[in-house]
Design a protein that fits this description.
Helix content is 64%, strand content 0%. By secondary structure, the chain is mainly alpha-helical. It has one domain.
């Protein structure tokens, strides 16, 4: 992509050093701190689950409706004498690095890594405030982001690249394993099943495309089939649904209120903070916490009900909330305007991550529509954390407007500062 490959190799090493140092800083600064949404409920699952007893009653505790693998991994560390808090933190930290290195490997395998735009994509994505929060907190979603990154890498290796028979077999088994693992970690792993077909659809190779799409779809369906006995026996046979929730049984009155004016509810989801409910059946409905506006804010700022931010953190958050929509729009314009400067593989990768991010947003809107209880803030961005791939991709395309190596270097300095600030002054 550039004639200054050695220059960008050195810059990548510099950014990698900054990133890893920052990641270690956030881990040790939060070491042993029970930090996360519903962290007590999460920690309790580590006490009642084990590899010998991986299944408990769906209604036994607040978090027991979740699949088990996200709890069993830190439980393994607890058996070595590590505390429950630190065990989850270490799993989250390892998952965040796994997500980073699989995305890095994807770019490297496509010969895209050593270019300033790709470097910006990689390190902006890894340092978005939501991502920093997940790296050292008590959560399941860091594992899902890692699975998404691994699925993207393996799918691209399978459907965009030439492989030997042995490589194809290993990659196929790896893809099935990662998808099945995600399904047994969190329900949001279901959305990851769309990644292989998307990679096949947007493959830069046009020959045998239908065959690739069919194979990718089959692999996703096969992974779902492997996980389906667990879902059927644990959820459907006991609850009558495949995807239960901890608000089943009492959320129905809120759904009935939503049903009084579905259009108004959807408008408030999409276009808040502008209110549309006045003069409707939803006039007194609480919309704070169920809006797309809340999802966007929680990528860049901590929910105030979770824990208050300090002044520097608030300043950083407000700056991001105000400026990022502009930068995302300009990144999209730059992608179109300067498409002749970007290689086909970069554009194909963008089609995959942007479409996948859009599916994440649609899934979030559907989830909030189905669970319209604002005090539980179902619109939290962490539920669709892989959307950060699309955000990072659009932001990085702004660098195509740079017309000199010096301008690219200045832009990468800004990326390094973005990384440092979001770890040293974490908004979460």
């Amino acid at each position: 992509m550039s004639g200054h490959v050695n220059t960008w190799v050195r810059w990548e090493r510099f950014l990698l050093t900054v990133f890893l140092s920052s990641r270690l800083w956030i881990l040790f600064s939060r070491w042993g701190e029970s930090w996360g949404f519903d962290s007590d409920a999460h920690r309790w699952m580590l006490q009642i689950l084990s590899w010998k007893n991986p299944i408990v009653g769906v209604r036994e505790s607040f978090f027991s409706y979740h699949p088990p693998l996200g709890f069993l991994l830190p439980h393994s560390l607890m058996s070595l004498g590590v505390s429950d808090i630190v065990s989850v933190q270490l799993v989250s930290f390892a998952a965040s690095l796994t997500a980073f290195f699989f995305l890095r490997a994807t770019l490297q395998h496509l010969n895209l890594l050593y270019h300033p735009v790709s470097l910006a994509f990689l390190y902006l994505t890894a340092s978005i405030p939501l991502q920093v929060y997940m790296a050292a907190s008590i959560n399941l979603d860091a594992i899902i982001v890692a699975c998404a990154s691994a699925t993207l890498y393996v799918s691209i290796r399978l459907f965009w690249c030439e492989n030997t028979r042995e490589q194809t077999i290993r990659l196929t088994l790896g893809l099935i394993a990662v998808l099945t693992f995600s399904l047994l970690t969190r329900f949001s792993g279901l959305i990851l099943l769309t990644i292989p077909p998307l990679v096949a659809v947007f493959s830069p190779k046009t020959q045998f495309q239908f065959k690739r799409i069919t194979a990718a779809t089959f692999l996703s369906i096969f992974a779902l089939a492997l996980a389906s006995p667990y879902y059927f026996n644990r959820y459907y046979k006991t609850e009558g649904v495949f995807l239960p929730s901890n608000n089943d049984g009492w959320i129905e009155p809120y759904q009935a209120e939503r049903n009084q004016d579905r259009l108004t509810f959807v408008l408030n989801q999409l276009f808040a903070p502008i209110a549309h409910a006045e003069g409707t059946a939803l006039e007194d409905f609480d919309f704070a916490g169920i809006r797309l506006f809340d999802t966007w804010n929680s990528i860049w700022a901590r929910s105030t009900w979770f824990r208050a931010q300090n002044s520097p953190s608030i300043f950083v958050s407000m700056m991001y909330i105000a400026s990022m929509p502009i930068l995302l729009l300009s990144g999209f314009i730059a992608l179109r305007k300067y498409r002749h400067r970007s290689p086909p593989l970069w554009r194909a990768l963008g089609l995959v991550v942007l479409t996948f991010s859009l599916l994440q947003v649609i899934a979030s809107l559907q989830f909030v529509y189905d669970k319209p209880y604002a005090p539980w803030h179902p619109a939290k961005a962490i539920y669709i954390a892989p959307v950060i791939f699309g955000i990072g991709y659009l932001l990085s395309n702004n660098l195509y407007a740079c017309r000199s190596v010096r301008a690219w270097k200045v832009a990468l300095i800004c990326v390094a500062l973005f990384t440092i600030i979001n770890h040293v002054v974490p908004v979460y």
